[in-house]
Structure formats: structure tokens, C-alpha cells
Amino acid sequence: MARRPRGLSDKERQDWALFARLITPLPGRAAPEMLPEPILAKPAEPEPAPPPPPPQVKLPKVRSSEMEVGSNPGGLDKSSWNRFRSGKLPVIRTIDLHGRTVQRAYDALHAFLITAHADQVRCVEVITGRGSGENGGAIRRELPIWLNQPQLRPLVLAATHPHPANPGSVRLLLRRAK
Question: Has this prediction a pTM greater than 0.85?
């Protein structure tokens, strides 16, 4: 079924009239059909005020040491590390980043961690997937970099894989909110 062409809006008619004035016809050709004179633009209405910025989350201060997945961080005692690493510390929330672009995965992870930290959740799991190829997927490769960025590093105390044979999932131990 063919669609009926829609008519031109007033704005489109104005734009065409302004454009048609600039055209000079080729020799032996007639001038383009002129539409009505452009209507002077109405005074612009004031734009609505931009929405207020989101509330600032106060992040805990952290030393600038790099965090690595699977290594015991400073500031965590050995028994807590062993409970976390062995999976005896229960996971409260999980996020699955499968099927997302890298940017959308980062945005989702950022929002997830901010919310979990604000809700005083202690242990979360991030599923990145194993990925294809010898180096794994892009999200899996980027996750350690993201966790060390200034926006996320103050929230995360430690990171480990729940099982050595499962590199497509990372458990995160979040810092306690003060």
C-alpha cells in the first residue's frame, strides 16, 4: 500500500522560500516555483530551564593503588579475603552485561555500583561473559580498567572471579558507606 505524501509544514514552506530565492535558473530554464513569501519568524519562546544536576554522591577517599581482579587488596584482613574469594560471602545483587555495547555496559555498571553502594550492599556480581577469541570479549577486557577509574575505584574494595574456571564473572566487594 502506497503512503500518501504529506503536505509541507509552515516551517518547511518558509525554509523552501528562503532557499528558492538563492537559486538562479540555468540558461533556457524557468525559475523554480516560488512558494508564498516567508513569514517572519515568531519571537523565540524562552527555552525551559535545564533539569537540575543529579545529586552528588560523596565517594570515600581511597589511596591511588591499582586494583587487580583476584589479588588481595590492602585494607582487607586475610579471613575476610578468603571468605570473599571462596564464595562464602553471599552475593546480594547481580548485573549481566551480555549483549550491550561497551559504552552502555559501562553506564549500566556505573549506575549499578552507585546504587548498590548507596543501598549499603556489600557483595555484588558482574557477569561480563567469556567473550570470543583468545582475549575474551571487550567488556571482559575493559572491566578492570573501569573499576580503577576515579568514579568507581572509591566504591570497590576487592574483585575476584567466583571460580578459576569462570573468567566471565567477577565478584566485587564494595566498601562500606560512611
Answer: no
Spatial CA neighbour of 176 closest among 129, 95, 118, 110: 118
User: Which three-class secondary structure state does DSSP give residue 158?
Assistant: strand
Ranges for all domains in the chain classified under CATH 3.30.1370.110: 78-174
What's the CATH code, domain 78-174? 3.30.1370.110
Cα within 13 Å of Cα(173), Cβ side: 28
Helices 138-147 and 102-118, axial angle in degrees (round to 10): 40
* Percentage, residues of the chain above pLDDT 90: 0
Confidence category of residue 133, pLDDT binned at 50, 70, 90: low
Q: What are phi and psi of 125, to 5 degrees?
A: -125, 135
